[in-house]
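User: Here's a protein and a ligand (2-acetamido-2-deoxy-beta-D-glucopyranose). What would the complex look like?
Assistant: Let me lay out the input and then the predicted complex.
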Amino acid sequence: MIGYTTALFALLAGTLVIAGHEELVQCTPGVFQIIGKADCTGFFMCVFGKKVEMPPCPPRSVFSSSANVCVPKGSMYDDCRKTTEGSGGHMPLLPDLGVFPHPTECQAFYNCSVRYTHGIPRFFEQHLVECPYPQLFNTETKQCDHFENVKCGSRAEIKDGCQYRSNQCPVARCRPCSVDLPSCIGKRDGINVHPAKLWSPFYAVCYKERTIKVEP
Ligand SMILES: *[C@@H]1O[C@H](CO)[C@@H](O)[C@H](O)[C@H]1NC(C)=O
């Protein structure tokens, strides 16, 4: 196995010498990777350490190395660096910029530093993470933030905590989420009866239709 790995490295080293700077792509043997081309026209896939060039991105789109997909050119997801300008040097894609909003959900975002290596959780995809309820993802600070500070724009704003992906039942059967996290949709601010536990001392504290607290 070591011999095989070494041979692959040697093979890749050979490829690196022949290829132009655009193709300075190193695959780690045994690791599945997607590596964007420096000019953002497409990407390589590393399958068992072997570099496979994928078809180019469709017209008017560029490869986003953070989102790992082709995205509309010039859109908010376009993280292509203008490497062709100036000295023409190859600028490495910095991992700290790998935080992107989910296109349709305000509480979810992609964090490229987060990598699921032991299987992707149900309802999630690679690099997809979620803010803790009731926080939302702030596209200006690129962080989870208090929901009142976040402008969701066209991204859907989930108010019911049970609709956050992380609160959805990951197995065949679960204790209903609403038992622990009753919805505050349509409720006034402040103390409200717990709809699943009427006539009990249980209550929910609501604020702007978010469940802030469940007592006792
Ligand atoms: C992204 O993930 C990294 C590594 O887990 C973490 O340090 C960083 O705070 C995360 N970024 C956000 C915005 O959550």
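Summary: The first strand starts at residue 33 and ends at 36.
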